Amino acid sequence: MNYTESLTYKFIEIEKSLVELQYLRTDLTYIANQDSIYFESTVKDSFFFKRVFINGTRLVFINLHMLLNKKEDFSIYSILDFIQSNYQAIEWHRDFDKYFLISLYQKLEHLDINILAELKTLRDKYLVHNDSNKKSFPVRIGLEDAWHILDCLNEIYAAIRLRFDNRQLIFEIYGDKPVEVMNLYRYKKIRSYSLERITSPSLQDLNNIRMIIKDKEPA
């Protein structure tokens, strides 16, 4: 495997992690959206969605830590180091000078050092290891901090890929609404509506059920 192929392999693995984080961002954002039509009836008191949210949040912080860990084979730091050491041996679609690479390192260095320290503490004391004295290490990092870090990593990765193979990557929240949550919301609403009128359903009742399926309020 030559240096270009090695870099391609690293890109594939890192992009998997970034895309997975974007999907988690979508899921967690919609599950936690208290202004949504489905939150009160479907999410708020659900232990299932609470577990999904907690475990999804754990994955976000663990994956972010891996992408920022200089010792990992597939991290943003390791890919920048690989490019710096092997630039001349890699086939590039667009050449660039050392200042471009320096600017990408600087983007990482400009991340809030306190947030990065908290990310490491959260990973080491709470998520990967169940440290007996973890209560001595209070953690204040939240998902908004995680999304800020993710945006930075996405920006760096997209800039490198553009110069490597001219791929223009735009990372964004995928999808409009979580289909499974919306289907469960519709089912619960239709069930409630039908049970109230089960003795004598009318044409208007059927029309109202169709309205519910379209996420509209029945007449």
Question: Topology, please?
Answer:
Layout (H helix, E strand, L loop, with lengths): L2 H29 L7 H5 L3 H22 L7 H11 L11 H12 L3 H15 L15 H23 L13 H18 L6 H11 L6
Protein name: HEPN AbiU2-like domain-containing protein
Give an overview of the whole structure.
With 219 residues, the protein is an all-alpha fold. The protein folds into two domains: 3-175; 178-219. 67% of the residues lie in helices and 0% in strands. It is built from nine helices and no strands. The protein has helices spanning 3-31, 39-43, 47-68, 76-86, 98-109, 113-127, 143-165, 179-196, 203-213. Helix 1 packs antiparallel against helix 7 (143-165) and helix 3 (47-68) crosses helix 6. The longest helix has 29 residues, at 3-31. The protein is elongated. The termini are far apart. The model has no long low-confidence stretch (mean pLDDT 82).
Q: What would you say about this model in short?
A:
With 219 residues, the chain is mostly helical. The protein contains nine helices and no strands.
List the domain count as a whole number: 2
Q: What kind of sheet is the major sheet?
A: none
Instruction: Write the H/E string, N to C.
Output: HHHHHHHHH
Gyration radius (Cα, Å) is 23 Å
> Could you list the spans in which at least 5 consecutive residues all have pLDDT below 50?
none
Strand coverage percent? under 5%
3D shape: elongated
What gap, in angstroms, lies between the N and C termini? 65 Å
The secondary-structure class comes to: mainly alpha
Q: What is the average per-residue confidence, as pLDDT, rounded to a whole number?
A: 82
Helix count, per DSSP? 9
Count of individual beta strands: 0
Share of residues in helices: 55-70%
